[in-house]
Fold each of these.
Amino acid sequence: MTLTRRGFLAGAASGLVPAYCQTCAPPAGGTPLPFSIPAGQTNVQRKAISALTATEVNRLRLAYRALRNLTNSNANDPRGWMQQANVHCFQCGGNPAGSDIHQSWFFLPWHRAYLYYHERILGRLINDMSFRLPFWDWDLPASRNLPPIYRPQTVSSQPNSLFDNLRDTNGGQAMPASIFPANSNPMNSPNFPTFGGSASSGGSLENTIHGLVHVWTAHRPMTQARADMGRLNTAARDPIFFKHHCNIDRLWAEWLRRNPVARQNPTALAWLDRAFTFFDENSRLRSIRVRDVLNTATNLGYNYAPGAALTSSAAPKRFDLTASQQQVVKLTAELKKRLLTPSDLNVTRSLVVEDAKVPTATGLYNVFAGAPPAAGTEASEAPNYLGYIAVIVGEHAHAARPASLILDPKKAFADMASTSEGAFLTYAPAGAAQGTRLSFSSVYIIEQ
Ligand code: C2O
């Protein structure tokens, strides 16, 4: 079936599900068997791509070679490369019944379960159930480019199974330097809704670094929603997708580990009992609940070594700011003084914006206190730059849900917010002179 790009966009804009979606529906699988811990499953630590031995790299290449071969030999095998990619497509708006797990609290657990079955399928294809997915450790500055083993088109004159031609980063270019700033780091999120989302909004991890790595991998600068990684419906066709999400999964574990008292997963049954279906390594349809994926070492056979390159673990102190009907943020004189006094070197101060109405088109948007800087100024160098929003959508209709953001309350923010006019927040794509005012439900500062 051929549809023009214009056709997709028009379908998405009018809220209709384009016919394209039908092509990513999974094969019939009958009644799913509930998840149970597979016999013989043992706990194996997942490693960083940069730490893999030559033997492990070879095993990874063989596994993705086998995955691609399966699509070529039987396009309907639910374990093949394209069927695996379609699982993601279907779940990101391709499902006509409308079940988009993005931009909500199901984002983290759904992707965890998806990676688990994907990992077992790869293990089965190479006859090694101790195979574990590696993670792309872009939290470390040294890993902020496409991992070298994913870049060459061929290896020993054979096609590289980890290669994807639809990337603008196969040359090893570096990610933008402003990608993981200390104060606007999503790892500073004080609670699960701001970190991983709620029933009705997305978390800061999803809407910053997660989206940025997607869109950037496919296209630089991030002004074009390009396949594969730059669109949700095609993202999982790129083998790097699973390693990107493996790191997202690791950061969830790490965020909890850093402060298990202040930071907790949701306890609502609507979250814990929500079930998803996946085909397992034997092509059996399985049903797995959110509660089944919370203890990875016991249930899913993997864990991560502690210690992502991140910030402090202290319990956050919260200072509420007032925001008027017009979404103008105001500081008390006392809070201004606090913000203008340099904090202890070990203290991180972040500005938390809950339920912000984020843009709905794929791209990188910079956030400012007041208007964006004049054209020609590097956004992240403007004194009123607070952080960024990275949005990734696909070609399907999506629920436009709000998102939480973790920003950096800089001096310019403190100055503006303490005047009688207060400060409004704006966002704008790179280089745009006009900003859009950001609306939200609440705003506060945390110190930790
Ligand atoms: Cu389901 Cu990174 O998107």
Note: The first strand starts at residue 33 and ends at 34.
Amino acid sequence: MSKVFNLIDKEEKRQGSQIHLIPSENIASEAVRKAVGSVLANKYAEGYAGRRYYQGNSVVDEIENLAIERGKKLLGVPHINVQPYSGSPANAAVLMALVEPGDKICGLKLSGGGHLTHGHPNITFSGKYYTSVQYDVEEDGRIDYEKLGKLVKTEKPKLIWAGTTAYPFILDWERFRKVADLVGAWLVADISHIVGLVVGAIHESPVQWADVITSTTHKTLRGPRGAFIAVTEKGLQRDIDLAKKIDRAVFPGMQGGPHINSIGAMAVAFEEANLDEFREYAKQIVVNAKVLAESLRDEGFKVFGTENHLMVVEIGNHQEDEKIVGDGKQMAVALEKAGIIVNANTVPHDKAGPFRPSGIRIGTPWETTRGMKEEGMTKIAKWMAVVRDCMGDDGKLLKIRGEVEEYLTSRK
Ligand code: DSN
């Protein structure tokens, strides 16, 4: 047992001594983590409050109802399901509820900043069991809504995903709605990445435009690992049974027993996100990201974005053994040696594949939680420029690592 806890200590030290810029990661509060590690983890509760398949769920019912009430209030929706284990099962449940296997669905390409569950062809359930047509971003990294409209008119998908994992610009929900209405498609907003900015009132909410909203709870929302599916008034107007269909698709359609400990932690996170403090936090995430993007440009990087919490930075690509490979991975590995954690990522229209793509993805949610402000962002940009210029020189990378550690310690 102690071996595991020694490793947890080790991981805590690692997190404390490195700069974290993966935009989908964050630091959950003590209260959120306490709920995750609580006795709620001991209980099975298949079903929904008041209709469980196991006894002993009177308190669990209260917990789930509390999470639901807080979630509805936070999002401004009439119905929310808080049982999805994470984003992918949530999106799978939405597809199960709204379309039939083989039906046409439409989402943003992975290389353009989309997600695997939005119809990535061949290898994912969303691309294998549904007929997927995908839209892409333009050279500048932005979605061309007119082009999307034309594609949708021709292909007539039954469901359109409006959601991203590496898209640094604001999504135009109204235009997505207009596009969906061209063919009467369902519009599903997957706000996993930007949910904190939406509930923090920095970005417009899709609540009046989408039929359904999905989101993970551990990214900008700063909650536990988990997800929710919200049904909007618009969605209910279209199908009065929509909430029921979503609930049935989650359980028993996709999942068994819900993770009540995560649901308890979600209730905590929803309350935390409803505070002024959180709105300040959301604002600072974007301020930090803008400063970081500008500072990186000043250092000569090509940066896509940003209007939100993240940006994609092009590192370049080259030919190796007749294959085009990108330098994003190499840069990410060098940055890790220097104590800065990012992930390699495709850039718009990347010629290299996703394992060795031509860019890196950078975001500010984690370090903003840690209290970092604009001055920290310019420092990070300078360190990144040195890393780019001395990628193969481990001595220099270790020197930066020392500086990073010293900086983080000085801020504690
Ligand atoms: N893996 C998540 C991300 O990093 O954006 C998306 O599911």
Note: The chain has a mean pLDDT of 97.
